[in-house]
Amino acid sequence: MSIKLSAKLTSGMQITVERDTAIEVVRELAFFSELLSCCPKCQGDICFTRRLAKDATGQLNEYLGMICRTKGHQITFGMHKEGGLLFTKDNNWDIYKKDEGKPVETDNRPEPPEPDLPF
């Protein structure tokens, strides 16, 4: 017999979880309950992300997380080896530079304006 629970989270997200035990339901709801409704650095809108990338050995890795739609701040999720539950790796919300393929640290200052060149 499974347990099904729907909940509206403080972020405004509506979620329905169906698992075999109450403990599994609470574990999964706990993760989603901790998610923010906006970027903690700039208060921009955020969304879930999924990226696939090959490592040096050619193995395909999946990266899950959330990204700020305004300034590109992001946070990545880790996955427990047993049970597959997700967790936030840290609360750093670095800026993701797609061209470089890795997050870079930021001090949250705005980018300097482009110089006016005479040519």
Key traits:
single chain, 119 residues, mainly beta, 2 domains, six-stranded antiparallel beta sheet, two-stranded antiparallel sheet, 1 helix, 8 strands, 10% helix, flat
Give the topology.
Layout: E1 3-8, E2 14-19, H1 22-33, E3 46-54, E4 60-68, E5 73-79, E6 86-88, E7 94-97, E8 102-104
Antiparallel strand pairs: 1-2, 3-4, 4-5, 5-6, 5-7, 7-8
Describe this structure in words.
Strands 3, 4, 5, 6, 7 and 8 form a 6-stranded antiparallel sheet that branches. A hairpin with a 6-residue loop joins β5 (73-79) and β6. The termini are far apart. The protein is 10% helix and 39% strand. It has 1 helix and 8 strands; from the N terminus they run ββαββββββ. The chain has 2 domains: 1-35, no CATH class; 38-103, no CATH class. The protein is flat.
Q: Tell me the series of helices and strands, N- to C-terminal.
A: EEHEEEEEE
Whole-number count of domains: 2
Question: For the residues shown, what is the average pLDDT?
Answer: 77
Tell me the strand percentage band.
35-45%
Shape field: flat
* Low-pLDDT residue spans: 99-110
Roughly how much helix do the residues carry, as a percent range? 10-25%
Described by its quaternary structure, the protein is: single chain
Query: What gyration radius follows from the Cα positions, in whole Å?
Result: 18 Å
Quick take:
The protein has 119 residues and is mainly beta. The chain is built from one helix and eight strands.
